Every structure is written in C-alpha cells, then in structure tokens.
C-alpha cells in the first residue's frame, strides 16, 4: 500500500453549524456542508459489515482547503472526538486487500461522486477509524461533489 499523503482529520461534533462557525473563525476557512440521507448519491460496495447500518442520516462539512471534516450523526453525539483520519492512496483495491490481510475490518466501502473511500473499524485501530481514499483531481471535496 502506497500512501500518497494524509488527507484530512475528521471530528465528530454535536452541533455542526456551531462547529463550522467556530473552526471557520479559528482557522480562517470556509466550510462546504454536505447532508447524506437515504436519497444521497452514494454507492455502497461490498464490505465486512452491514451497509444498511451506515446508511443512517449524517451531515458533514469540509473546509475548502481540505484538511478538516466535521461530522454530525443523528441523533447527535454527546461525545465529541477525533473520529477518523483519511489517507490518500494510489490503489484503493490493493490497499483494502492489504489491510484485510493484516486483520483490519472494512466497515464501509463506498463511492461518493468520483471518490472511493474504504473505512476500517475503530475497534482494531485504538478507537480511531482509518479511511483510505482514492480520487483524481485537485481535491477530495471536488471529487465527492463531481457526478461525471
């Protein structure tokens, strides 16, 4: 598995709007809000868990520089935390197989727009989800929002 770079850090928050304002002010960045629900254009690919469990309503925001992801699930969490770290890889399929061979559980495998994402479980990784992403283009945000 060749990691090209660390892509971003994801924080689970209880109030997405308040977090967007606070982190936007602190970091001097703007956020793009994305709401996912059962009608979202997400393709769930085979994984080691139940894809339906991941199809719950979630809202997120990404800063336009692409370093920070804010996530709010419904119902909102009461335990705000660092939830995940994303790494960009050159070949997601071989990276998935390598992680599985090392004993890590693939809890989500999906395509959002033109981005592929593989999420490995927090139970095996000291409480932190490890996300591998692959996309072409200048940014993960643009790839997620692209439909062609």
UniProtKB/TrEMBL annotation:
Signal peptide: none
InterPro entries in the cross-refs: Glyas_Bleomycin-R_OHBP_Dase, VOC_core
Xref: SUPFAM superfamilies: Glyoxalase/Bleomycin resistance protein/Dihydroxybiphenyl dioxygenase (SSF54593)
PROSITE patterns recorded: VOC
All residue ranges annotated as the VOC domain in the record: 5-135
Protein name per UniProt: VOC domain-containing protein
Species: Nocardioides marinisabuli
């Amino acid at each position: 598995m060749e990691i090209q770079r660390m892509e971003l850090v994801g924080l689970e928050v209880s109030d997405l709007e308040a977090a967007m304002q606070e982190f936007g002010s602190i970091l001097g960045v703007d956020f793009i809000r994305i709401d996912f629900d059962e009608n979202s254009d997400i393709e769930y690919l085979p994984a080691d868990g139940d894809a339906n469990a991941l199809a719950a309503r979630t809202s997120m925001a990404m800063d336009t520089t692409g370093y920070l992801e804010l996530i709010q699930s419904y119902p909102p969490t009461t335990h705000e935390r660092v939830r995940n770290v994303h790494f960009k890889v050159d070949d997601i399929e071989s990276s998935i197989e390598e992680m599985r061979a090392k004993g890590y559980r693939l809890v989500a495998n999906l395509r959002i727009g033109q981005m592929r994402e593989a999420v490995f479980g927090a139970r095996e990784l000291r409480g932190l989800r490890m996300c591998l992403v692959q996309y072409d283009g200048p940014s993960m945000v643009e790839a997620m929002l692209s439909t062609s």
